[in-house]
EF-hand domain-containing protein (Scyliorhinus torazame), 161 residues
Amino acid sequence: MMNIEVDDVYAKDLFSKCDKSKDGNIHGKEIEEFYKLVTEREEIKTIFEAYCDKDRVLTLEKLTEFLRKEQRENVNAEYADQLIQQYELNEEAKSESLMTKDGFMCYLLSPAGDIFNQEHSKVHQDMTKPLNQYYISSSHNTYLMKDQLEGPSSVEAYIRY
C-alpha cells in the first residue's frame, strides 16, 4: 500500500525481516526500517559512499565535488550549502552544513537533481488562441479508421481525433 513497484516475494521477505515481534504487523521503527529497505537503490548507495566521509555524511566540499564531477554542474560551495539547507532532513546535520543519505535522496529526487532542464518546461509561444488555429503535427497513423494493416484510411479520422 506504499505505492512502490516491487516484487511481492521480495517485499514479503523484507517485511519478515522487519517484523521483530513475528505477529504479522510492523510498528514504529519497523515501518521506517521496512521503508528504507524497500526503497534502497544500489546505484545511489554506491555513489553516496564514494563521496561520504567516515561518519557517512557528505561534507560541503564533497557535495560540491559530486555536483561538479558527477552532475557536471559549474557550482560553488555556496550553492551546495543552499542544497543542504533545502533538502537535508536532519536539523543537526543541516546546521553543520552536512548532508545525510536521506537528504541526498531528497535532493536527487527533487527538480534540482532532475536531469530534465526546467527551462524546457516553459511555454515560449503565444498559446492564447483557440486550438483549431494552431498547426498540429500528428502521427502518420492518425488517418487510419481501424487497424494499421487492414483498416481503411480517411480524412474523417483527423476530424474525429
About this structure: The radius of gyration is 25 Å.
